[in-house]
Give the backbone structure.
Amino acid sequence: MTRCRAPRLRHGHHYKEVLSRADRLYRAGGETLDAGLYLFDVDAINIRQALDWCADNFRLDPDVARLCCAYARAAPHLLPLRCDLRACLRWAKSARAASSQLGDREAEAGALWQMGVAFAMMGNHKQAIECHTEQLAIATELRDEASQSAALGNLGLQYRHHGDLQRAIECHEKALDLCPDADLSGQAAALGGLAAAHLTAKNRRAAIQLLEQQIAVAREANEPRSEEAALGNLGIVHAMLGNSDRARSLYDEALSIARSIGDRPGEGKALAAIAGLYLATGRSREALGLYDAAISIARDTGHCATEALQLYNKSTALARIGLLPAAIDAAVEALRIREDLGLPDADATRQAIEVYRSWPRKRRWRFWRRTL
């Protein structure tokens, strides 16, 4: 490392600045959003190489450790959007270790936030909770209200996944209270988390009000990803209420925003939501292509839990058009991923596979004929 240290450090510092600028342009939104994405995409290979070099060498040199921490602060929103989650998690873990090595508590809190987000997106909610709990402790120690609000919001999301809705609502309400008045992005995120918790608790009226507030704040803050998420969740509420046309309109808006900002996970989520509408209205064949697109995006971006969910949904669509062997294959693949991740949904997947395998042929034919 000694011989190549200086040029590699210069390379790393240069592309850290490129990454920071790309993230600033992206976050500014409007006309600069595409410029930020373009700037990242042009130099993506060099940025990833610099991140990998920092992750491999931070223990050998304090200057590299400081650069590793600087990368963790450079683009907290753009990296998960453009890079594989497994790589993002590796970089965040390295930044956390580097910040601990340097005694930089603020950088450590940021790295823990990134680790928690990556774990959550990959479906590992237990480790996500551990990361955000540690982040909250450090943010409280530093009296950083914005970081406390972010940690509480993410904890609320994880508690909702675990079915602890009261605790989730309490976390989101605290996150909203702690969020600084000037932090419109944080407020939009807190409103979205609170709305999701109320939606899961079937408080649909409260969810609609909160989502409409989130959309308004996100537009004021020029936060298209937050607006996209709120539109998608509002579509879910209207689908639950039987308003299919309104739900489809909202999903289309979310899909348009996702594609315009290069949010591939968001694009996959919107496509799967539209497929769900098709499935609910008896258009199972049309749903299949959308589920395949959503599965492909989830695989490309490392969203393992999402991949399992859409495989399971695809198995339902295949079963409804009478393709039981293919339905079983898709469900078995979903089960493998859910078992690997230790997700509670694995039990429901096993039950579906048993149902597909145990139905007598005549009964299968009569049932699927009624559903076509």
